[in-house]
Specification:
single chain, 93 residues, mainly alpha, globular
Length: 93
């Protein structure tokens, strides 16, 4: 139990340090990692970490992430509907 909480807190801290300008590199790097990981093992926990990061992005970061995810993130298991729902709700005035 303690490991999970420590892991989630580390992921939250990483997300806070991830600037909008670094999201393109983040998506590309994670996609390359998943290309290798998914060949040999279950990638549930890694994808869960990415979703924790993405779920905490503000609108500006979500827009950049969604664009990069669609261009170069085919191996990432992120549900675009969650991103679109947040963008729609927060940008619809």
């Amino acid at each position: 139990m303690e490991y999970d909480e420590t892991r989630k807190e580390a992921i939250k801290q990483y997300r806070k340090s991830l600037s909008t300008s670094k999201i393109k590199n983040f998506v590309q790097t994670e996609n390359h990692l998943f290309t290798d990981i998914t060949k040999n093992r279950n990638d549930f926990y890694s994808n869960e970490g990415i979703n924790l990061i993405v779920n905490q992005f503000d609108v500006e970061k979500l827009k950049v992430f969604l664009d990069e995810f669609m261009r170069c993130g085919p191996n990432l298991d992120v549900h675009p509907t969650k991103i679109l729902h947040v963008l729609n709700r927060k940008t619809d005035s």
